[in-house]
Design goal:
There is one protein chain. With about 325 residues, the protein is mostly beta strands. The protein contains no helices and 16 strands. It has a 16-stranded antiparallel barrel.
């Protein structure tokens, strides 16, 4: 990493990152009859530029990478690029933020239907922005609000991918019970629309959770959240779209649990479990269970080494006969 010298009234920081992420799955392309085990490596380099003043912080993050597939798969090797900008303004009682992003990356499995992949070199173009604030009501209570818009498109037309747009708004009330324990209540709603005349999927996802953060000791802390998600889905028959759309409503449990342990001042270990719900291209409820770990070692004041891993399993509803979708990954990162 490299940090530039400080200016008089503001600090400029410049840091670089090098990483290589390795992942594997017995169904990496998410198709009905997978040929066998396959994996991928994602080698990337990044640059962070930050401007920090007493009340204003601006940051720019840029990444370039190259994804290489190996094993029993016909997926093409592809490059990826991304850039993100963040601006934060601090006042006595309220902090405001606004950010924007743009990325070009391989189309992920969430864009594939159960028919499998026909075009295997499709790239996804994503861009969007979000804004919000954190208001301190009093010494114990604070209110967070954010709203974001995003759009996804693809470099080639294919029956396996669908351009889409979404708007998400969230609200959270946080109470600090004491110096070690806080509680929260969170609400969010997401509107999604498929930008395809033959796939007129549109849905609203409502989520409500309650949770707590507890710092049990100087080195050990836990976080837990639990709640429910309600999905209101509208979908047209792709063969007869003029007949209108059918409405379905599904719900499911969501929650997460995480712990952080710092055995030494320069070493941090994190473990995370979560379950979330979403609708697939057919408008059916799917549940995703995931487990992650992360180990961070602070080499010096300006550089660190991170090792993280993740296992994710996605399953369908009662009428879904497709096999679970399982993906694992491991990622070493030096910054």
């Amino acid at each position: 990493s490299l940090i530039a010298p400080s200016a008089q009234a503001s600090n400029w920081e410049m840091l670089y990152r090098l990483s290589d992420r390795v992942s594997g799955s017995d169904n990496i392309a998410q198709i009905v009859n997978p040929p066998g085990w396959a994996g991928s490596t994602d080698a990337s380099a990044g640059l962070d530029i930050n401007l920090i003043t007493k009340s204003l912080t601006w940051g720019l993050t840029a990444d370039i990478g190259y994804v290489t597939y190996f094993g029993e798969t016909e997926l093409e090797n592809v490059p990826r690029k991304s850039v993100k900008s963040d601006l934060e303004k601090k006042t006595r009682d309220t902090d405001y933020f606004v950010s924007s992003f743009y990325s070009i990356a391989p189309a992920t499995t969430t864009e594939f239907t159960d028919l499998g992949i026909i075009e295997n070199d499709i790239e996804r173009l994503s861009y969007g922005a979000d804004a919000g604030f954190n208001h301190r009501i009093n010494k114990r209570d604070s209110l967070n609000f954010s709203i974001g818009v995003s759009r996804s498109d693809f470099t080639e037309a294919s029956p396996d991918v669908t351009p889409n747009r979404s708007v998400t708004a969230s609200l959270a009330l946080i109470r600090q019970f004491n110096q070690r324990v806080s509680g929260n209540v969170k609400y969010s709603v997401q509107w999604y629309q498929a930008d395809d005349p033959l796939n007129r999927t549109e849905f609203l996802i409502y989520k409500n959770t309650v949770g707590t953060d507890a710092k049990l000791t100087r080195r050990f802390s836990v976080t837990a959240n639990a709640g429910a998600a309600l999905i209101d889905n509208y979908k047209a028959d792709p063969l007869f779209p003029a007949l209108g759309r059918d409405r379905t409503m599904v719900y499911g449990f969501i929650g997460d649990f995480s712990l952080e342990y710092k055995p030494f001042n320069d070493t941090t270990f994190n473990f995370f479990l979560a379950q979330d719900v979403f609708t697939d291209d057919l408008g059916d409820l799917r549940a995703t269970q995931s487990a992650r770990f992360a180990l961070k070692y602070q080499i010096s004041g300006i550089s660190s080494f991170n090792l993280s891993g993740c296992l994710s399993i996605s399953t369908g509803g009662e009428d879904d006969t497709s096999p679970p979708r399982e993906v694992w990954s491991i990622s070493p990162v030096y910054s």
